[in-house]
Amino acid sequence: MRVAVVFPGQGTQEPGMARSWKGHRAWSVVDAAETALGEPLATLILDAPAEQLARTRDAQLAVLMTSLIAWDAAKERLDGHQIVAFAGHSLGQVTALIASGVVSLADGVRFAARRAEATQRAADAHPGRMAALLGGTEDQATEACAGLECWVANDNAPGQIVIAGTPEGLDAAMARARELGVRRATPLKVGGAFHTPLMDDATAALTEALASVELHGPTAPVVSNGDAVAYDDGEGWRTRLVRHPTEPVRWRASMETLVGSCRAEKLAEIGHGAMIAGVAKRTVPDVGVIGVGTPDDLARLEEGLA
């Protein structure tokens, strides 16, 4: 079976999201990550309340750690199958780079923390918000944002576009989107206008954070959020990761790449929740998605790939 491995991003976090993994062999990933970062992480995925997980840094580290635990447990179940590519939605792209071997666990966790800090500083300096346009097209979203301090931030699936910008720009774009026939414009509970030019301040910090990180060729190509191309190099990610917070996430095109040029027959969604499965149904409906979010899902992974 030809399998593409995909990882979720911020927004999938919730209290106790990794409790089912406590005591599992794969929990050793948490110990290694805590050593690398020099701070406790277990509490984020076991006991942190929703208010804490609303903070950008805590949310991203919680999602990253839960996905890495699940990956450590799931990868042995993929023996005998061909992993044709990796991909991750927004923050999940960092998870994909760790899972594919482009960066080590230690470097990846440290970079994820620096990335979250840098983007939050940019958000504090240039306040912004995000909103989902449901039932709209990318062309409608682009037209709604035209001439405003607002941009298309995520093209997740047909009928699911996310825009982001300054508070004033976003409000104006949402109103314009409704006039253009978009069914619903819903504000998202996030701490900034991520994947827009309002994140430009983060690039210098990310360049510095990556300066001493070793990058290696992946075990299978990694699809970039920025251009939906599957890359089999390592060094190019030094530039791609710096641009990532300021570029829109082309997730619909990324899934089309996984199924098209990478020829994936199944998608394995590794981590908490089923966000990717939900948007995959709209984009690549003929390709099944098998989710691994708890130890109980490991048997279902094997069954689904049989």
As an assembly, this protein is single chain
Considering the protein shown, what is the CATH homologous superfamily of the largest domain?
A: Malonyl-Coenzyme A Acyl Carrier Protein, domain 2
Which structural category fits the helices and strands? alpha/beta
CATH domain class of the largest domain: Alpha Beta
Helix content: 40-55%
**Any idea what the CATH architecture of the largest domain is?**
3-Layer(aba) Sandwich
- CATH domain fold name of the largest domain: Malonyl-Coenzyme A Acyl Carrier Protein, domain 2
The biggest sheet amounts to: 4 strands, parallel
Q: What value does the Rg take, in angstroms?
A: 18 Å
Taken from the alpha-carbon principal axes, the silhouette is globular
Strand content: 15-25%
Q: How many domains make up the coordinates?
A: 2
* Low-pLDDT residue intervals, each spanning 5 or more residues: none
The tally of helices reads: 13
What is the averaged pLDDT score? 96
**How far apart lie the N and C ends?**
8 Å
H/E series: EHHHHEHHEHEEHEHEEHHEHEH
Strand order of the largest sheet: 2-1-9-10
List how many beta strands DSSP finds. 10
